[in-house]
Amino acid sequence: QVQLVESGGGLVQAGGSLRLSCAASGRTFRSSNAMGWFRQAPGKEREFVASFYWTGGSIYYADFVKGRFTISRDSAKNTVYLQMNSLKPEDTAVYYCVAKVESSWYSPSSSWGQGTQVTVSS
Fold it and tell me: DSSP assignment, residue 55?
């Protein structure tokens, strides 16, 4: 499995921006078929935010982040990013990076990071 470490979270005012990073160690990202970002707010289930697939380069976003968040990667640095603009208080959550090798993000073979807290104040 890939070991993933997120960073870049913090406290920001509504309308502000943050860039999250997800650095991989061990095996490279390319051992996965897709990379993604999920988030989990207190008392809520973990939810999908964004992803891209190595084959074909397809990118997907949750409707609630379209036009505000951008997922990208730097293969040379083995790092995935999530640029978050126009942040809203409802974006407050712990954000997780994940690498999957099977069809389900929640497969036991997926690798998850420890998460990074994002707090957006109103």
Answer: T
Rounded to whole angstroms, the Cα distance separating 122 from 90 reads: 10
> How many helices (H) and strands (E) are present in the chain, helices listed first?
0, 11
Give which of 7, 19, 40, 13 is closest to 116, Cα–Cα: 7
The Cα 44–Cα 59 span in angstroms is 25
Which helix (H) or strand (E) element contains residue 77?
A: none
What pLDDT digit, counting tens, does each position of 18-75 carry?
999 999 887 666 678 899 999 999 999 999 999 988 888 899 999 999 999 999 988 8
Contact 20, 118 (CB under 8 A): yes
Torsion on CA atoms 94, 97, 102, 106, rounded to nearest 10: -10
Residue type, 118: V
CB neighbours of 7 closer than 8 A, spacing ≥ 6? 20, 21, 23, 116
Q: Cα(59)–Cα(56) distance, rounded to whole angstroms?
A: 9
- Six token digits for residue 3: 């070991």
